[in-house]
TrEMBL record:
It comes from Neoroseomonas oryzicola. This is fumarylacetoacetase. The lineage of its organism: Bacteria, Pseudomonadati, Pseudomonadota, Alphaproteobacteria, Acetobacterales. Residues 1-12 have a biased composition (Basic and acidic residues). Pathway: Amino-acid degradation; L-phenylalanine degradation; acetoacetate and fumarate from L-phenylalanine: step 6/6. Residues 29-119 form the Fumarylacetoacetase N-terminal domain.
Length: 425
């Protein structure tokens, strides 16, 4: 479990000037981890600081970072070592980058000159459904009297999704083909006509547990390496047709976009807050005093759209969703504990999706399936959208905020929808 320490000190500044700029995602209190490369060089681990990246391999070579895991070409080795290793690295990097320490600009790379990669090979990907408001809004269409799945208030519902189609922010998504039944009852196969986004939080797993060995709530927080943003691209016409027998399949496996930077659990300690009250109370295996007092995170999340016409006109992305992660009915710790409750062996580098982060407010509807319940979206330039069209770009951002703490950001999670490929002859 993360503890507040000197790395969170709101008075701390960095010798990297851009890290002290008001509104930056990456002040010295953040120090998220990612994997980057530059022209002619192999991928390596780095830390975001202002508009620069600290090259951890170079810092280790200079004797300023002690853990050899930081020199790898992915965060996998560091994730395997677990939270003690990431906390120790954070302490070293915070001291290295803080004001009063000799400047080492030779260890920095401009973000603009770097290409970002997936933080690690995604070994498994499970996606949860933890928002009461998301489930209730869409469930009313299915059964107005019982909109929530029967198990929703008893456990964090999830399904296993496709790890191989997880992509880093910035990679395009291709409109998929699929099968569904039209309103007139005829069957159709072709490019989807109902492409959607889902604004979610990514939860990255640290360490392993042996198969057959559960993870109790007392240890669940320490299995969370960190957090990022996740777009669970959703093919609604295909999803509606295939779901009743076994749940999501081709409606979800086409692509999942994740932000390049992982904000460590240690960095988020100042933003912990009490979890929402559950009724009925969770069973003991999903309950702990820590979870009740610290299980939620105060993170404001937004989703915006940038259409081709808006891009040509030089317009900024239009915000479709403005929501709060702290309101999720089930916390990340309960997701970890429930996932491993049957002895499932969670592995370092596994990815969990929080599910759509919808809140009770109209502005907090976190997907077009919810927003569209009241009609198409009207954009400032006169365009309308019911579903995502070819060339549209979806941009997620998030910011952790709490009294007395320096706000920290998550960077962007973005992806543009490209046209479907021609079906092979």
């Amino acid at each position: 479990m993360a503890q507040r320490d000197a790395t969170h000190d709101p008075a701390r500044k960095s010798w990297v000037a851009s890290a002290n700029t008001p509104g930056t995602d990456f002040p010295v209190q953040n120090l998220p981890l990612g994997v980057f490369s530059t022209a002619g060089a192999a991928p390596r681990c780095g830390v975001a600081i202002g508009d620069r990246i600290l090259d951890l391999k170079a810092a280790h070579g200079a004797g300023l970072v002690s853990n050899p895991a930081a020199t790898a070409d992915s965060l996998g080795p560091l994730m395997t070592e677990g939270r003690r290793a990431s906390a120790a690295l954070r302490t070293e990097v915070s001291a290295l980058l803080s004001e009063g320490t000799p400047s080492r600009t030779d260890l920095l790379v401009p973000m603009a000159a770097a290409r970002m990669h997936l933080p690690t090979t995604v070994r498994n990907f499970s996606d949860f459904m933890a928002s009461y408001d998301h489930c209730a809004r869409l469930g009313v269409r299915r059964d107005p009297k019982n909109p929530l799945p029967q198990a929703f208030r008893q456990l964090p519902v999830a399904y296993h999704s496709r790890a191989s189609s997880v992509r880093v922010s910035g990679e395009a998504v291709i409109r998929p083909h699929g099968q569904w039944q039209r309103q007139d009852g005829t069957m159709h196969f072709g490019p989807t006509e109902a492409m959607d986004y889902e604004l979610e939080m990514a939860v990255w797993i640290a360490g392993d547990n042996a198969i057959g060995e559960p993870v109790p709530m007392s240890r669940a927080p320490d299995r969370i390496f960190g957090y990022g943003l996740l777009n669970d691209w959703s093919v609604r016409d295909v999803q509606r047709w295939e779901m009743p027998p076994l749940g999501p399949f081709l409606g979800k496996s086409v692509s999942t976009s994740v932000s390049a930077w992982i904000v460590t659990a240690e960095a988020l300690a100042p933003f912990e807050m009490p979890a929402p009250v559950q009724e009925p109370p969770a069973l003991p295996y999903l309950d702990s005093a820590w979870n009740r007092s610290n299980g939620a995170l105060a993170v404001r999340m937004t989703a915006a759209i940038l259409t081709p016409r808006m891009r040509a006109e030089g317009a900024a992305p239009f915000v479709l969703t403005d929501t709060q992660f702290a309101g999720m009915y089930w916390t990340a710790a309960t997701m970890v504990a429930h996932h491993a409750s049957n002895g499932c062996n969670l592995l370092a580098g596994d990815l969990l999706g929080s599910g759509t982060v919808s809140g009770p407010e109209e502005t907090a509807r976190a997907c077009l399936a919810e927003i569209g319940l009241t009609g198409p979206v009207s954009l400032p330039n006169g365009e309308t959208r019911r579903w995502i069209q070819d060339g549209d770009e979806i941009v997620f951002r998030a910011r952790a905020e709490a009294p007395g703490a320096v706000p920290i950001g998550f960077g962007e999670c973005r992806g543009v929808l490209n046209p479907a490929i021609a079906w092979p002859a």
